[in-house]
């Protein structure tokens, strides 16, 4: 059987490469500084949903866990993603979450039914455990408050518990729990998908959301005026997003939108179409932000805290591939998927899309980190990285500080699908230009000519590093017993910095790094 699979994957790569390559061109405009790419674009999300927290990042009873109860094997993999920001505790789960259930001595924490996602939560992983986890992985914590069954006062008390420095009840409660110094949580979401009718929310009406949110904002900002607030938008309901921006704009730092790819079937075409289609709502929300004044005028001093400063950005605080139609997911609500190689190409396409919108996207957190729609899977014996781990890590590791305008000339590999998808960036010191390219033609390799417009580039040759990622086959998946279906290769060569040619394997994503430009 093993031999048969080997022959099959060998045949796949041989046939793919023996087809005539197609030609494409990429032009990078490096005459401009480019738009800053927020490093927070490479964040993650974790929710009390199925085995994401309990049995995922946290398992007190496992021999694989440390003294905090954190699964060490999982932690090592999360660390590899170099997550800059981690969102918690939901998601829809926030609608039933009361933060006080998850603080204090573990033995006296209340067990609660998880009314949203099923099961029982013993609340042994709560605020302090989340903060310690963030510190271990080097991520900024991002908390979301319950505005469905919670109150503005409860949210403000949570702010005091986390950030309070005075001799007051909730700050002292944190001290009593063993944390003298404040947690300094900067990012706070108020609500989650509040327009979603089937969920436990009470804000399907945008006017009601705005009225209630004002109360939350006031109470929370009076506790700590430096908070950065993430308020609920809706990429499918522009009226909702426009109204939130118009009426809560003075206190909104980020407008939350959730962008899931939900392919119609298991074909690559539907997957890519579902991601390419996201460009439209994203562009529409971009335009709403452009139309929102950057400066806030006449903000009453009687609010007793300052208005937002700086432009409002988008927080894509949930994104991912929700392949519900494959019907193959396990666990709670079938959300434990196996992601194949094509999904990894989908993730790379998504990340290029976000990079191109870096002028407006201030933050993005992949939903979710472990077991649920996740790049990392675990069971009681160990854990492994799924195929989608590769693009999440590669983009975080290699993409530069400024996005550069990039144009692509390519054919359609199937009607409506452009074969080549590309984005490029410049490093902070301008020494490097980094290109991230997805060849979405699964049958043909691409012979791609890259032009770099830059009047400052000398004609001397520079080093080009090409890091290519392919799958063993289009539908190959990693598993607990085989984590090696993603093939990474590296080559280096010297090229002229303004024009050079590269070959891209079929169904691949590639990082090109031009080094030594100055
Ligand atoms: O990520 C899973 C769920 O998807 C989240 O709880 C919810 O916000 C979204 O619809």
Automatic annotation (TrEMBL):
Q: According to the UniProt entry, what is the EC number of this protein? A: 3.2.1.55
Signal peptide boundaries? 1-18
Q: What is this protein called?
A: non-reducing end alpha-L-arabinofuranosidase
Note whether Signal occurs among the keywords: yes
One matching Pfam family:
ASD1_dom
User: What are the Alpha-L-arabinofuranosidase C-terminal domain coordinates in residue numbering?
Assistant: 317-508
**Enzyme class name:** hydrolase
């Amino acid at each position: 059987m093993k031999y048969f699979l080997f022959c099959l994957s060998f045949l796949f790569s041989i046939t793919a490469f023996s087809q005539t390559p197609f030609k494409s061109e990429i032009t990078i405009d490096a005459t401009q500084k480019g738009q800053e790419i927020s490093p927070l674009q490479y964040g993650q999300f974790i929710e009390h949903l199925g085995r994401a927290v309990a049995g995922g990042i946290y398992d007190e009873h496992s021999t694989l866990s440390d003294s905090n109860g954190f699964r060490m094997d999982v932690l090592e993999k999360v660390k590899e993603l170099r997550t800059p920001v981690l969102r918690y505790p939901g998601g829809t789960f926030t609608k039933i979450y009361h933060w006080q259930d998850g603080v204090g001595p573990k033995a006296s924490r209340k067990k609660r039914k998880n009314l949203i996602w099923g099961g029982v939560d013993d609340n042994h992983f709560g605020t302090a455990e989340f903060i310690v986890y963030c510190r271990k992985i080097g991520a900024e914590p991002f908390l979301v408050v319950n505005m469905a069954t919670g109150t503005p006062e409860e949210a403000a008390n949570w702010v005091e518990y986390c950030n309070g420095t005075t001799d007051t009840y909730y700050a002292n409660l944190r001290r009593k729990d063993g944390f003298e110094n404040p947690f300094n949580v900067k990012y706070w979401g108020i609500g989650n998908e509040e327009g979603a009718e089937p969920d436990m929310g009470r804000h399907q009406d945008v006017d009601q959301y705005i009225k209630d949110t004002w109360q939350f904002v006031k109470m929370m900002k009076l506790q700590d005026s430096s908070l950065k607030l993430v308020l609920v938008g809706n990429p499918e309901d522009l009226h909702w997003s426009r109204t939130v921006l118009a009426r809560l704009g003075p206190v909104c730092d980020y407008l939350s939108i959730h962008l899931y790819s939900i392919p119609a079937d298991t074909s690559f075409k539907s997957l890519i179409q579902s991601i390419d289609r996201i460009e439209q709502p994203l562009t529409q929300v971009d335009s709403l932000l452009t139309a929102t004044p950057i400066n806030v005028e006449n903000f009453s001093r009687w609010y007793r805290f300052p208005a937002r400063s700086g432009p409002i950005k988008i927080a894509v605080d949930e994104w991912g591939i929700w392949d519900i139609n494959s019907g193959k997911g396990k666990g709670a609500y079938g959300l434990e998927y196996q992601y194949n190689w094509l999904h990894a190409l989908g993730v790379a396409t998504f990340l290029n899309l976000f990079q191109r919108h870096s002028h407006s996207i201030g933050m993005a957190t992949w939903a979710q980190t472990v077991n649920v729609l996740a790049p990392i899977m675990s069971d009681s014996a160990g854990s492994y990285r799924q195929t989608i781990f590769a693009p999440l890590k590669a983009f975080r590791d290699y993409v530069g500080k400024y996005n550069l305008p990039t144009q692509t000339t390519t054919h359609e590999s199937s009607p409506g699908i452009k074969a080549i998808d590309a984005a490029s960036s410049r490093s902070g010191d301008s020494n490097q230009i980094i290109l991230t390219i997805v060849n979405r033609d699964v049958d043909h390799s691409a012979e791609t000519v890259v032009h770099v417009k830059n009047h400052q580039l000398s004609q001397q040759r520079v080093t080009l590093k090409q890091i290519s990622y392919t799958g063993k086959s289009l539908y190959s998946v990693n598993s607990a017993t085989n984590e090696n279906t993603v093939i990474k290769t590296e080559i280096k060569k010297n090229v002229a910095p303004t024009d050079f040619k590269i070959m891209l394997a079929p169904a691949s994503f590639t990082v090109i790094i031009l080094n030594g430009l100055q």
